[in-house]
Amino acid sequence: MTERTVARVVVADDQMVVREGIVMLLGLLPGIEVVGSAADGEEAVRLVAELAPDLILMDLRMPRCDGVEATRRIRLEHLGTQVVVLTTYADDDSLFPALQTGARGYLTKDADSDEIVRAIDDVLSGEAGLSPKIQRRLLERFTEPVSPRRRPSDEPSDGLTAREAEVLRLIAEGQSNPARTLHVSTATVKTHISNLFAKAGLRDRAQAIHYAYRQGLAQPPG
Questions:
Q1: Minimal CA–CA distance to 74: which of 106, 101, 40?
Q2: If you average pLDDT over residues 191-209, what whole number do you get?
Q3: Higher confidence at residue 85 or residue 111?
Q4: Which of 120, 134, 204, 215 makes the best surface tag, with the fewest CB within 10 Å?
Q5: Residue 191 in contact with residue 202, Cβ under 8 Å?
Q6: Looking at beta carbons, which pairs linking 174-180 to residues 24 or more positions away fall under 8 Å?
Q7: CB neighbours (10 Å) of residue 121?
């Protein structure tokens, strides 16, 4: 951590033992002051509004409001607070939505104290705070060959990601539980649905289905 300032940090994690452990660890590190901790995304958003921290360390899988949605709300409403994800998960369904909604850093919970301090310092200096593991995954993702089924020109409009389009297709095809088909959590699917509704200006399931038909993501019955 640089000596320019003391970073005021909030920690958000639904597991009390993990949350208290992170708070204790950060309290021992130079240049960091933990000003609050939250047990879910709703509390995280409230604390950011109340305390205006420089940065929040955000878990992803939390009740009431998951870390991706909390990140989106914080970055829309409180631009002075940066978000660094600190989570168990490094899979694409966790990584890319978090970065797309405004997280500037992404660490897994096996990160050591040096990595955490470096990520916080990088993010508060205007850089990205990504662990080496996450940097490799990003590089792999963006150097993967583009499948003919997933050409940029074939993607739906309104800025939907490939995963959001896939969720929309499953909804239009009558899937009652896309999470099971995609092998992801229900919270992750809800985040995708929230994002695609916002991007496409949709209000309900019926509109989403018609939108999917217009975009050619699914075929109407018959």
A1: 101
A2: 85
A3: 85
A4: 204
A5: no
A6: none
A7: 17
The set of residues, in sequence order, having a beta carbon less than 8 Å from that of 2 and lying 6+ positions away, is: 31, 121, 125
Nearest to 86 by CA among 128, 127, 116, 62: 116
CA distance from start to end of the chain: 62
* Cβ atoms of residues 157 and 215 within 8 Å: yes
Supply the pLDDT for residue 147: 43
DSSP secondary structure of 162-201 = HHHHHHHHHHHTT-S-HHHHHTS-HHHHHHHHHHHHHHHT
Q: Give, in degrees to the nearest 5, the angle at Cα 102 between 39 and 149.
A: 115
Contacts 24+ apart (CB under 8 A), 169-174: 169/212, 169/217, 169/218, 171/205, 171/208, 171/209, 171/212, 172/208, 172/209, 172/212, 172/213, 172/217, 172/218, 173/218
* Tokens (6 digits) for 85: 């994800």
Q: Provide the residue count of the chain.
A: 222
In whole angstroms, give the CA distance from residue 158 to residue 67.
23
